[in-house]
Description:
Strand order of the largest sheet: 1-2-9
Number of domains: 2
Strand content: 15-25%
Amino acid sequence: MSGSDQRAVVVGGGLAGVTAALELADAGLRVTLLESRPRLGGLAFSFKRGDLTVDNGQHVYLRCCTAYRWFLDRVGGAALAPLQDRLDVPVLDVAHPAGPRLGRLRRSALPVPLHLAASLARYPHLSLAERASVGRAALALRRLDPADPALDGLDFATWLGRHGQSPRTIEALWDLVGIATLNATAGQSSLGLAAMVFKTGLLSENGAADIGWATVPLGDLHDTLAREQLDAAGVRTELRTKVTG
Length: 245
């Protein structure tokens, strides 16, 4: 059959489903996208509470998230979710006994893993011993293979505890990245998924962990813009449509 005669059905209108539908349509197939919810976006969406718009899901992304960056470009949303020029995150501890204390996580131009060494050495929310333990855990993390299925049988918090990370260290450092990127704490994240995020983002390339975030509600990107581009690509999108067989 010619490309225009080939058809595809995509089940699910989350980020993966929308991406698959767009790529198939770009390849010349006639695509139908089925989604049981009344919107697209999957677990990355927005909802209203009075005058407040609340986002759920992928609150930030990293420079290393190349597939997601392709999605943003494809739906015309890259300018609405810009990346930092260089990783720089202010971290405020409002519960410090001496009053609110501000720290920063920022990278230098040095190669991995030295690019975060100076920032970690000055990080005020951890003790000297805790900062040293982070370096040892990071080196152990580099040796993991995120594709190893055995890693999904252990949660990230348990692994961190086995590698000398105190509950305070997990809360004040590891969960800062984990909650924003995985939408879950270390205790709720599999070691495999966490290893993929941290190893790729923090321990692969110097700028891999530079942060991007949406300046508009997530629903504007993952539902509104996505639906516009699906329509423009000729994809037939059916919402409130459950697949039973």
